[in-house]
Amino acid sequence: MSGLLRRKSVIAFIMICIVGFAGPAFIGGHPHDAVGAPFARPIWWNAKLSSTVKINLDEKGAKLEWTKLPPAIFSLTGEIKADPNSAVSIIWRTPKGEYKLAGMTGRPSYWLNMDGRDMIFKQSLGLPLIGKSVEYLFPCTGKYSLSIDGASAADLTLSLPGARHGLLGTDQRGRDVFTMFIYGIRTSLIVGICATIIACVLGLGFGLAAGYVGGMTDALIMRSVDILLSIPTLPILMVLAGIWGKGLWQLVLILSIFSWMGTARSVRSMVLTVRESPWVEGLRALGAKRGYILWRHLVPETAPIMLANLALGVPGAILSEAGLAFLGLSDPRLISWGRMLHEAHSFGAFTEGAWWLLLPPGIGVVAVCLIFMDIGRYLEEKIDPRLGGGRP
Fold it and tell me: Under a CB-based contact definition with an 8 Å cutoff, are residues 41 and 164 in contact?
């Protein structure tokens, strides 16, 4: 056991579990919250790209020095109060000219919700409807100002989401990819581990029954195993996901139902080799009941195989969950690595060149699978001396 705990793959797995289950408590906000512009690159990527800027304004307006490329979005929201008999105008001044964003009169207060991506906003400024308005509102580096003329009070927010945000950028909805990646760890581990544990328990029970009881029970269980192994798994998983729902535990149940056959065969093979051994015959001669022999002696004999199958089965469950999520057969409210890949593919991450949406979940799936495969290989070596486990 001490050798297993010192193994690098086990240490990496413990660290991933800590990050996946404790990390969300230290991350502010919700993974579904839009925190930046769509397809914003990581903050460490091109320093010439602008980062997110947010300025709170009063009736005096604001001035700013712009030294980066244009932001991704221009947004102005909030409330303005004024005398109903006076006109209110909002002017955006650039080094190459000025734009009248709004002109209002006849009311004591005005609510603003301007978005540079809106067609009406572009049309009111005389900008091309096809294209980005920020390229005209930020034509170059220099001094910019926003003035509010005729207002008695104002509570506005000028939001300029940049083309860079967070450690891993944002997705097509402006959600933080790093936050989604951390939440995806928990989902992948829950699905992989729980589905594999249920499958191993089912395989252990059916394998013990088939190997020890024999006869018609053995024939019925093994023929059922053969039938399930011959059925194409993916179409059945798709059908069951559509019938039972797309929740987390429905997905775990679906994956476990089609993952126990290999464990049942392995357990049955071992039970067949030991059920006629002298010590089992001695237990029967002493009057030991079948349940006692199975639980106290045969189950411990199969424990090494169960541990190896458990470690090697988790990668398969994680990949199956990622595949179903990639096909859109998981709960859209559930953040997982497979769901991230599905949405990246569906919303044009390939055409946008948004590699930061594809690499983190892909590398995460591969890393977790390799960790469990290394653990399973180590357990196999300890079980079977022919693989090198018996060497000092």
Answer: yes
